[in-house]
């Protein structure tokens, strides 16, 4: 594991440029999630080993209050995913991609793809429990009908006049801001 924790999306992009090579990549996530995402990027890098197989993130976004990490391997069909909000929580349905390419089965690839899929889902679950602002352990806090996951400190700050500091971090190609 790296000793120095990346602090922002830009740090992560600098450390793992290949993971952020998609020119259409859009990332919008809470600053508090960078800790989780940094661990995910590092784990993905380890799983891939020397052969990166064209791995890259295609989208990172917020959905139902937690993060979604979408990825692709160059030249492979991405997984089809559907997230459904149910009374019991969010249900994720997955249809693994790349199944049509049965003639050139690459078992090493299947293993890597499913391991990265597993890591991404674990990271998504982890973002349900970290403060959006600072990344410390948090719980869901509902105020004004709007739920956010916050640590005790930021929960208190939310109720003070100054409110929460801006906590969304975006990363995308600068062409259209
Ligand atoms: Zn916090």
Description:
The protein is α+β, with helices and mostly antiparallel strands. It has one domain. Helices cover 28% and strands 29% of the residues. The protein has four helices and eight strands. A four-stranded mixed β-sheet has the order 3-2-1-8. A two-stranded antiparallel ribbon has the order 4-5. A two-stranded antiparallel sheet has the order 6-7. A hairpin with a 2-residue loop joins strand 4 and strand 5 (89-95). Helix 2 (34-48) runs antiparallel to helix 3. The protein is globular. The structure holds zinc ion. Zinc ion binds at residues 131, 133-134, 136, 150-151, 153-154.
Structural class: alpha+beta
Distance between the termini: 33 Å
Give the integer mean of the pLDDT values.
86
Taken as a percent bin, the fraction of beta residues is 25-35%
> Roughly how many Å is the radius of gyration?
17 Å
Q: What is the count of DSSP helices, taking H or I runs of 4+ residues?
A: 4
Bound molecules: zinc ion
Ranges with pLDDT <50 over ≥5 residues?
none
